[in-house]
Amino acid sequence: MTNIDQGHRLIQRPVLERPEIVQTSLLRQSLSIARRNLIHIKRMPEMLLDVTIQPVIFVLLFAYVFGSSIAIETEAGYKAWLLGGIMAQTVAFSAFIVAVGLTADLDKGIVDRMRSLPINSAAVLVGRSMSSLLHSSIGLVVMSLTGLLIGWRIHTNVVDAALGYLLLLGWGFAMIWVGIWVGSAMRSVEAVNGVMFATMFPITFLANTFAPTDNMPTWLRTIAEWNPISSLTQAVRELWGNDQPLHADAALPLQHPVLATLIWIVVITAILAPLAIRTFNKRTAS
After folding, report:
1. How far lies 191's CA from each of 23, 188, 213, 276, 284, in Å?
2. For the segment 211-241, what is each residue's pLDDT rounded down to a tens digit?
3. How far is CA 161 from the centre of its chain?
4. Distances (CA, A) of 172 to 16, 101, 182
5. Burial label, 224 (beta-carbon count in 10 A; 0-12, 13-18, 19+)
6. In Å, how far are 81, 100, 124, 218, 272 from 136, measured between CA atoms?
7. Per-residue pLDDT, 275
8. d(Cα 123, Cα 34) in Å, to the nearest integer?
9. Per-residue pLDDT tens over the stretch 86-97
10. pTM listed for this prediction
11. Using only C-alpha atoms, what is the Rg of the chain?
12. Which residue from 13, 99, 154, 242 has the fewest beta carbons nearer than 10 Å?
Protein backbone atom coordinates (compact mmCIF):
# COMPACT_ATOMS: atom_id res chain seq x y z
CA MET A 1 0.00 0.00 0.00
CA THR A 2 1.19 3.56 -0.70
CA ASN A 3 0.29 6.62 1.37
CA ILE A 4 -0.75 9.78 -0.48
CA ASP A 5 -1.21 13.04 1.48
CA GLN A 6 -4.08 15.08 0.03
CA GLY A 7 -4.39 18.08 2.29
CA HIS A 8 -4.65 16.58 5.79
CA ARG A 9 -6.19 13.30 4.65
CA LEU A 10 -4.07 10.21 4.21
CA ILE A 11 -5.28 8.05 1.37
CA GLN A 12 -3.98 4.53 0.96
CA ARG A 13 -3.80 3.04 -2.51
CA PRO A 14 -2.84 -0.54 -3.36
CA VAL A 15 0.45 -1.10 -5.11
CA LEU A 16 0.17 -3.18 -8.28
CA GLU A 17 2.73 -5.94 -7.99
CA ARG A 18 4.05 -7.95 -10.89
CA PRO A 19 2.66 -11.48 -10.70
CA GLU A 20 5.16 -14.14 -9.81
CA ILE A 21 6.31 -16.24 -12.78
CA VAL A 22 6.36 -19.91 -11.88
CA GLN A 23 8.72 -22.01 -13.98
CA THR A 24 7.06 -25.10 -15.44
CA SER A 25 8.37 -28.00 -17.47
CA LEU A 26 8.03 -28.46 -21.20
CA LEU A 27 5.68 -31.38 -20.58
CA ARG A 28 3.32 -29.33 -18.41
CA GLN A 29 3.32 -26.45 -20.89
CA SER A 30 2.65 -28.84 -23.77
CA LEU A 31 -0.19 -30.50 -21.88
CA SER A 32 -1.78 -27.08 -21.26
CA ILE A 33 -1.65 -26.24 -24.97
CA ALA A 34 -2.96 -29.70 -25.89
CA ARG A 35 -5.82 -29.17 -23.42
CA ARG A 36 -6.58 -25.84 -25.08
CA ASN A 37 -6.79 -27.56 -28.48
CA LEU A 38 -9.08 -30.26 -27.09
CA ILE A 39 -11.36 -27.67 -25.49
CA HIS A 40 -11.57 -26.06 -28.92
CA ILE A 41 -12.79 -29.38 -30.31
CA LYS A 42 -15.29 -29.69 -27.45
CA ARG A 43 -16.77 -26.31 -28.34
CA MET A 44 -16.80 -27.17 -32.06
CA PRO A 45 -17.74 -30.88 -32.30
CA GLU A 46 -17.84 -30.66 -36.08
CA MET A 47 -14.04 -30.76 -35.97
CA LEU A 48 -14.38 -34.49 -35.24
CA LEU A 49 -16.28 -35.23 -38.45
CA ASP A 50 -13.09 -36.30 -40.22
CA VAL A 51 -12.42 -39.08 -37.69
CA THR A 52 -16.02 -40.07 -36.94
CA ILE A 53 -18.58 -39.60 -39.70
CA GLN A 54 -16.24 -39.57 -42.71
CA PRO A 55 -14.46 -42.89 -41.99
CA VAL A 56 -17.76 -44.59 -41.20
CA ILE A 57 -19.20 -43.37 -44.52
CA PHE A 58 -16.10 -44.61 -46.34
CA VAL A 59 -16.33 -48.02 -44.68
CA LEU A 60 -20.02 -48.43 -45.49
CA LEU A 61 -19.69 -47.14 -49.07
CA PHE A 62 -16.75 -49.31 -50.03
CA ALA A 63 -17.93 -52.36 -48.10
CA TYR A 64 -21.47 -52.46 -49.46
CA VAL A 65 -21.30 -50.52 -52.75
CA PHE A 66 -17.93 -51.58 -54.16
CA GLY A 67 -17.25 -54.68 -52.09
CA SER A 68 -19.36 -56.98 -54.25
CA SER A 69 -17.24 -56.21 -57.32
CA ILE A 70 -13.79 -56.56 -55.68
CA ALA A 71 -12.55 -60.12 -55.16
CA ILE A 72 -10.38 -60.79 -52.12
CA GLU A 73 -8.71 -64.14 -51.52
CA THR A 74 -9.11 -64.27 -47.77
CA GLU A 75 -11.53 -65.96 -45.39
CA ALA A 76 -12.27 -62.66 -43.68
CA GLY A 77 -13.68 -61.19 -46.90
CA TYR A 78 -13.46 -57.70 -48.38
CA LYS A 79 -15.03 -55.91 -45.40
CA ALA A 80 -12.33 -57.04 -42.98
CA TRP A 81 -9.61 -56.54 -45.60
CA LEU A 82 -10.87 -53.01 -46.28
CA LEU A 83 -10.71 -51.78 -42.71
CA GLY A 84 -6.91 -51.70 -42.57
CA GLY A 85 -6.87 -49.40 -45.60
CA ILE A 86 -9.50 -47.08 -44.17
CA MET A 87 -7.56 -46.80 -40.92
CA ALA A 88 -4.31 -46.08 -42.78
CA GLN A 89 -6.00 -43.36 -44.81
CA THR A 90 -7.59 -41.74 -41.76
CA VAL A 91 -4.30 -41.65 -39.85
CA ALA A 92 -2.54 -40.19 -42.89
CA PHE A 93 -5.11 -37.40 -42.89
CA SER A 94 -3.85 -36.32 -39.46
CA ALA A 95 -1.38 -34.18 -41.41
CA PHE A 96 -4.37 -32.34 -42.84
CA ILE A 97 -5.81 -31.60 -39.39
CA VAL A 98 -2.51 -30.37 -37.98
CA ALA A 99 -1.85 -28.14 -40.98
CA VAL A 100 -5.29 -26.51 -40.88
CA GLY A 101 -5.25 -26.00 -37.11
CA LEU A 102 -1.72 -24.57 -37.03
CA THR A 103 -2.34 -22.24 -39.95
CA ALA A 104 -5.53 -20.95 -38.32
CA ASP A 105 -3.68 -20.28 -35.05
CA LEU A 106 -0.85 -18.52 -36.87
CA ASP A 107 -3.24 -16.42 -38.93
CA LYS A 108 -5.26 -15.33 -35.88
CA GLY A 109 -2.17 -14.45 -33.86
CA ILE A 110 -2.81 -17.13 -31.23
CA VAL A 111 0.67 -18.61 -31.63
CA ASP A 112 2.20 -15.16 -31.17
CA ARG A 113 0.29 -14.74 -27.92
CA MET A 114 1.48 -18.12 -26.70
CA ARG A 115 5.09 -17.35 -27.58
CA SER A 116 4.87 -14.04 -25.73
CA LEU A 117 4.34 -16.00 -22.53
CA PRO A 118 7.27 -17.35 -20.49
CA ILE A 119 7.07 -20.81 -22.05
CA ASN A 120 9.33 -23.01 -24.13
CA SER A 121 8.79 -22.24 -27.81
CA ALA A 122 8.65 -25.98 -28.55
CA ALA A 123 5.57 -26.37 -26.33
CA VAL A 124 3.35 -25.00 -29.11
CA LEU A 125 4.36 -27.79 -31.48
CA VAL A 126 4.47 -30.54 -28.86
CA GLY A 127 1.02 -29.59 -27.60
CA ARG A 128 -0.34 -29.58 -31.12
CA SER A 129 1.20 -33.03 -31.70
CA MET A 130 -0.37 -34.44 -28.53
CA SER A 131 -3.85 -33.23 -29.37
CA SER A 132 -3.50 -34.49 -32.94
CA LEU A 133 -2.51 -37.99 -31.82
CA LEU A 134 -5.49 -38.09 -29.48
CA HIS A 135 -7.66 -36.85 -32.34
CA SER A 136 -6.42 -39.71 -34.54
CA SER A 137 -6.91 -42.22 -31.71
CA ILE A 138 -10.58 -41.28 -31.55
CA GLY A 139 -10.84 -42.13 -35.24
CA LEU A 140 -9.21 -45.53 -34.72
CA VAL A 141 -11.66 -46.35 -31.92
CA VAL A 142 -14.65 -45.30 -34.03
CA MET A 143 -13.48 -47.34 -37.01
CA SER A 144 -12.75 -50.38 -34.86
CA LEU A 145 -16.28 -50.31 -33.47
CA THR A 146 -17.69 -49.84 -36.97
CA GLY A 147 -15.59 -52.74 -38.21
CA LEU A 148 -16.88 -55.03 -35.47
CA LEU A 149 -20.44 -54.24 -36.59
CA ILE A 150 -19.75 -55.23 -40.22
CA GLY A 151 -17.82 -58.39 -39.41
CA TRP A 152 -14.19 -57.27 -39.00
CA ARG A 153 -12.19 -59.21 -36.44
CA ILE A 154 -8.56 -59.51 -35.33
CA HIS A 155 -7.48 -63.12 -35.90
CA THR A 156 -4.03 -62.96 -34.32
CA ASN A 157 -2.70 -62.53 -30.78
CA VAL A 158 -2.78 -59.53 -28.47
CA VAL A 159 0.84 -58.55 -29.19
CA ASP A 160 0.32 -58.40 -32.96
CA ALA A 161 -2.97 -56.57 -32.50
CA ALA A 162 -1.31 -53.93 -30.31
CA LEU A 163 1.61 -53.62 -32.74
CA GLY A 164 -0.84 -52.87 -35.54
CA TYR A 165 -2.35 -49.98 -33.61
CA LEU A 166 1.10 -48.73 -32.59
CA LEU A 167 2.19 -48.67 -36.23
CA LEU A 168 -0.88 -46.58 -37.08
CA LEU A 169 -0.12 -44.12 -34.28
CA GLY A 170 3.55 -44.04 -35.29
CA TRP A 171 2.51 -43.17 -38.81
CA GLY A 172 0.23 -40.49 -37.40
CA PHE A 173 3.22 -39.04 -35.52
CA ALA A 174 5.23 -38.85 -38.76
CA MET A 175 2.29 -37.21 -40.53
CA ILE A 176 2.15 -34.56 -37.81
CA TRP A 177 5.47 -33.19 -39.03
CA VAL A 178 4.12 -33.06 -42.56
CA GLY A 179 1.20 -31.03 -41.23
CA ILE A 180 3.42 -28.69 -39.21
CA TRP A 181 5.60 -28.06 -42.24
CA VAL A 182 2.67 -27.35 -44.56
CA GLY A 183 0.81 -25.34 -41.92
CA SER A 184 3.87 -23.17 -41.26
CA ALA A 185 4.59 -22.64 -44.95
CA MET A 186 1.06 -21.79 -46.10
CA ARG A 187 -0.39 -18.34 -45.41
CA SER A 188 -4.09 -19.24 -45.24
CA VAL A 189 -6.39 -22.12 -44.41
CA GLU A 190 -7.67 -22.06 -47.98
CA ALA A 191 -4.15 -22.62 -49.29
CA VAL A 192 -3.67 -25.53 -46.89
CA ASN A 193 -6.94 -27.11 -48.04
CA GLY A 194 -5.88 -26.83 -51.66
CA VAL A 195 -2.42 -28.28 -51.14
CA MET A 196 -3.49 -31.12 -48.85
CA PHE A 197 -6.44 -32.20 -50.99
CA ALA A 198 -4.25 -32.19 -54.09
CA THR A 199 -1.64 -34.42 -52.42
CA MET A 200 -3.19 -36.56 -49.68
CA PHE A 201 -6.15 -37.90 -51.66
CA PRO A 202 -4.08 -39.21 -54.60
CA ILE A 203 -1.47 -40.68 -52.25
CA THR A 204 -4.03 -42.54 -50.14
CA PHE A 205 -6.01 -43.80 -53.14
CA LEU A 206 -3.02 -44.77 -55.29
CA ALA A 207 -2.22 -47.66 -52.96
CA ASN A 208 -3.69 -50.95 -51.79
CA THR A 209 -6.05 -49.20 -49.41
CA PHE A 210 -9.31 -49.96 -51.24
CA ALA A 211 -8.37 -52.46 -53.95
CA PRO A 212 -5.58 -54.97 -54.53
CA THR A 213 -2.73 -53.85 -56.76
CA ASP A 214 -2.60 -57.14 -58.73
CA ASN A 215 -4.76 -56.02 -61.67
CA MET A 216 -3.25 -52.54 -62.06
CA PRO A 217 -1.09 -51.73 -65.09
CA THR A 218 2.55 -52.62 -64.40
CA TRP A 219 3.78 -49.03 -64.09
CA LEU A 220 0.87 -48.03 -61.85
CA ARG A 221 1.21 -51.15 -59.72
CA THR A 222 4.88 -50.36 -59.12
CA ILE A 223 4.02 -46.87 -57.88
CA ALA A 224 1.19 -48.17 -55.69
CA GLU A 225 3.28 -50.93 -54.09
CA TRP A 226 6.16 -48.58 -53.27
CA ASN A 227 3.72 -46.07 -51.82
CA PRO A 228 4.39 -45.99 -48.03
CA ILE A 229 0.64 -46.07 -47.39
CA SER A 230 0.61 -49.53 -49.00
CA SER A 231 3.31 -50.74 -46.61
CA LEU A 232 1.34 -49.48 -43.61
CA THR A 233 -1.90 -51.01 -44.87
CA GLN A 234 -0.29 -54.36 -45.63
CA ALA A 235 1.45 -54.39 -42.24
CA VAL A 236 -1.80 -53.79 -40.39
CA ARG A 237 -3.60 -56.48 -42.38
CA GLU A 238 -0.89 -59.03 -41.71
CA LEU A 239 -0.70 -58.23 -38.01
CA TRP A 240 -4.46 -58.59 -37.69
CA GLY A 241 -4.76 -61.68 -39.88
CA ASN A 242 -6.85 -60.03 -42.61
CA ASP A 243 -4.35 -60.09 -45.49
CA GLN A 244 -4.48 -62.03 -48.72
CA PRO A 245 -1.58 -63.87 -50.46
CA LEU A 246 0.74 -61.57 -52.39
CA HIS A 247 1.54 -62.15 -56.04
CA ALA A 248 4.98 -63.60 -56.76
CA ASP A 249 6.59 -60.36 -57.97
CA ALA A 250 5.21 -58.09 -55.25
CA ALA A 251 7.44 -55.15 -54.36
CA LEU A 252 9.89 -55.55 -51.48
CA PRO A 253 7.99 -53.22 -49.07
CA LEU A 254 4.91 -55.43 -49.33
CA GLN A 255 6.93 -58.56 -48.61
CA HIS A 256 8.28 -57.03 -45.38
CA PRO A 257 5.59 -54.44 -44.56
CA VAL A 258 6.22 -54.02 -40.82
CA LEU A 259 9.93 -53.32 -41.30
CA ALA A 260 9.22 -51.10 -44.32
CA THR A 261 6.65 -49.08 -42.34
CA LEU A 262 9.05 -48.56 -39.44
CA ILE A 263 11.73 -47.36 -41.89
CA TRP A 264 9.28 -44.96 -43.53
CA ILE A 265 8.25 -43.53 -40.14
CA VAL A 266 11.88 -42.92 -39.16
CA VAL A 267 12.84 -41.45 -42.55
CA ILE A 268 9.84 -39.12 -42.81
CA THR A 269 10.29 -37.90 -39.24
CA ALA A 270 14.07 -37.45 -39.62
CA ILE A 271 13.65 -35.38 -42.79
CA LEU A 272 10.52 -33.38 -42.08
CA ALA A 273 10.84 -32.70 -38.34
CA PRO A 274 13.89 -30.39 -38.69
CA LEU A 275 12.41 -28.83 -41.83
CA ALA A 276 9.06 -28.23 -40.10
CA ILE A 277 10.68 -26.70 -37.01
CA ARG A 278 12.84 -24.42 -39.14
CA THR A 279 9.86 -23.30 -41.23
CA PHE A 280 7.77 -22.72 -38.09
CA ASN A 281 10.51 -20.66 -36.40
CA LYS A 282 11.01 -18.61 -39.56
CA ARG A 283 7.27 -17.95 -39.81
CA THR A 284 6.87 -16.91 -36.18
CA ALA A 285 10.04 -14.82 -36.09
CA SER A 286 8.88 -12.57 -38.93
Report:
1. 38, 5, 32, 17, 18
2. 888 888 999 999 999 999 999 999 999 999 8
3. 20
4. 47, 15, 15
5. buried
6. 20, 15, 18, 34, 20
7. 92
8. 9
9. 899 889 888 888
10. 0.84
11. 24
12. 13
